[in-house]
Amino acid sequence: AQSVTQLDSQVPVFEEAPVELRCNYSSSVSVYLFWYVQYPNQGLQLLLKYLSGSTLVKGINGFEAEFNKSQTSFHLRKPSVHISDTAEYFCAVSWNSGGSNYKLTFGKGTLLTVNP
Amino acid sequence: NAGVMQNPRHLVRRRGQEARLRCSPMKGHSHVYWYRQLPEEGLKFMVYLQKENIIDESGMPKERFSAEFPKEGPSILRIQQVVRGDSAAYFCASSPSRSLSYNEQFFGPGTRLTVL
């Protein structure tokens, strides 16, 4: 079965430090890749997505991610975090095969805590 | 433009009772998806519906769970005779009509079901 792995369940960092949240997936067949953020008691908000084209994707709030096909990874980065970035981050993958590209498979999430 | 609405936000049921979760998609969206997030897990796809049609229910448990998206009104996820293992957050997402490329899914805030 296809799967998504977020290697770190929690990542504590200090404000203005850089951060990388890691995401790997199980297959390099044609994929769509996503990062969502969930603030407490809110729904998931799309940060960025990779559908095709440039492997470096820029999203909202200064986040970016790089699609690495050979390593089946889609790590999320931000050069300088703010307290307001404290949230849960989910990596999600849609395998573009068999007409079911609407079906998102999520990782378990990474809780990013930004400390002053 | 209001986002995806879900209610109730929190629902408590005793074992054996029925749970009804409602989802109103974004205006203009005719596709609805339900996902379940068990504790310490990522979101898992349950079902994909269009108005009056179930397109893919491959992620739904075979018993006790059903979903509908009537011509008028919200989508309903119904769980009969709930058990403690049904305790989870249930998220609804919606997207506009299918296009040739990927349709972004917009998520609601979720319903947190607790079974006592």
Summarize it.
The complex is a heterodimer of chains A (116) and B (116). Chain A is mainly beta and 116 residues long.
Can you describe this structure?
The complex is a heterodimer of chains A (116) and B (116). Chain A contains no helices and 12 strands. Chain A is mainly beta. In chain A, strands 2, 5, 6, 10, 11 and 12 form a 6-stranded mixed beta sheet that branches. A 4-stranded antiparallel beta sheet of chain A has the order 3-9-8-7, with no helix packed on it. Chain B is mainly β and 116 residues long. Chain B has strands at residues 5-7, 10-13, 19-24, 31-37, 43-50, 53-56, 65-68, 75-79, 88-95, 106-107, 111-115. In chain B, the strands form 2 sheets. In chain B, strands 2, 4, 5, 6, 9, 10 and 11 form a 7-stranded mixed beta sheet that branches. Chain B has a 4-stranded antiparallel beta sheet with strand order 1-3-8-7, with no helix packed on it. Chains A and B meet through strand 6, strand 10 and strand 11 of A and strand 4, strand 5 and strand 10 of B.
